[in-house]
Amino acid sequence: MNDTSTGQRIGPFEICVRFRRSVANLMCQWFCCFCTFAFCPVLVGQEAPVRLASATLASQVASIASSASASSGEMASRWPYLERVGQFHVHSTVPIAKLEIHLLYLSTLPKELSTSLAISISEQPIHLVVLDSRESLDSYVNRLLPDAPSRRALYIRHRGPGLVLTYFNPGWVTDARHECTHALLDASGVKVPQWLDEGLAEYFETASSNPLKHVTHGAAVQSQIRYGQVADIQQLEHTDSNTALTAKDYRDAWSITAFALNSSDQTKSAFQKYLQDLQSERAAGLLSHRLQPSVRSWREDFTQFFRRQSH
């Protein structure tokens, strides 16, 4: 065989060497493409997760995280207001005095998750950015991730510390608790399906002693019950993880979470064991199958439970 570039004859050994080099190059290119997809950040908010590759984001996450160990002068030059509340590192353009009461409600979230779900919650830092307006948040996100959709708040899954981006508004503590629930579960290695991830975030976003009194979902579920409609857990379980959840999906996910945690000791125990298996990377199966032994009739038990909440 002749080399087309030099016209010289190539022996069998040289042919073998060149073939192996070609294969190695192809494998290297494939691996680079895989890493770009596998390790790029994922945004989690009020819509389906969005996967984005961004070196700018990686440096920004590192920059924000590094401020936790920087001197006070260095931190002040990056963010006008900084506060640490438990494992939450707050980086804000809003005075901390305006956030203090809200941060109290946020600080209890890790303990609430640990107690209610009977799982261990990681103590690794969660970095929480608070900007002064929706416009500021959109501008901030667009500089980092031009392809990201506009959202009220979002959690960025990335290697290293979790990053939650928010803007200050009357419902800020709800937004912050929702996204920080995603961050804490993710940091703790609890890999739940997308619909349940949102169901748990919707459930724990309520900063009150009674999470069953959800501002929007509670009344909507009561209305569904009056018309004989119940959440379809099996339909949610078979929802494509790349499909955006609808408003009804969020409501159903919240109501299923509320039912599982509060209907009976048996459903709560089954739900907790399911989450423990997910955290331990044991075969967990489907939640509907795990709840089945403690539920006589899904429709009847679900309906009766929420009817009791209306009294």
SS-derived structural category: alpha/beta
* Termini Cα gap: 88 Å
Q: Uncertain spans, ≥5 residues at pLDDT below 50?
A: 2-6, 22-42, 48-56, 67-76
Helix tally equals: 14
Number of discrete domains = 2
Query: How many beta-strand segments?
Result: 7
Mean of residue pLDDT values: 82
Going by CATH, what is the homologous superfamily of the largest domain? Collagenase ColT, N-terminal domain
What does the model show?
The chain is α/β, with parallel strands linked by helices and 311 residues long. It has 2 domains: 38-188, Glutaredoxin (3-Layer(aba) Sandwich), CATH 3.40.30; 191-311. It is 54% helix and 10% strand. The protein contains 14 helices and 7 strands. The protein has helices at residues 12-38, 55-66, 72-78, 96-107, 109-117, 134-144, 172-187, 194-204, 217-226, 233-237, 247-262, 265-279, 287-291, 298-309, and strands at 42-44, 50-51, 81-85, 88-92, 126-131, 153-157, 162-167. A 7-stranded mixed beta sheet has the order 2-1-6-7-5-4-3, sandwiched between helices. The longest helix has 27 residues, at 12-38.
Fold blueprint:
Blueprint: H1 12-38, E1 42-44, E2 50-51, H2 55-66, H3 72-78, E3 81-85, E4 88-92, H4 96-107, H5 109-117, E5 126-131, H6 134-144, E6 153-157, E7 162-167, H7 172-187, H8 194-204, H9 217-226, H10 233-237, H11 247-262, H12 265-279, H13 287-291, H14 298-309
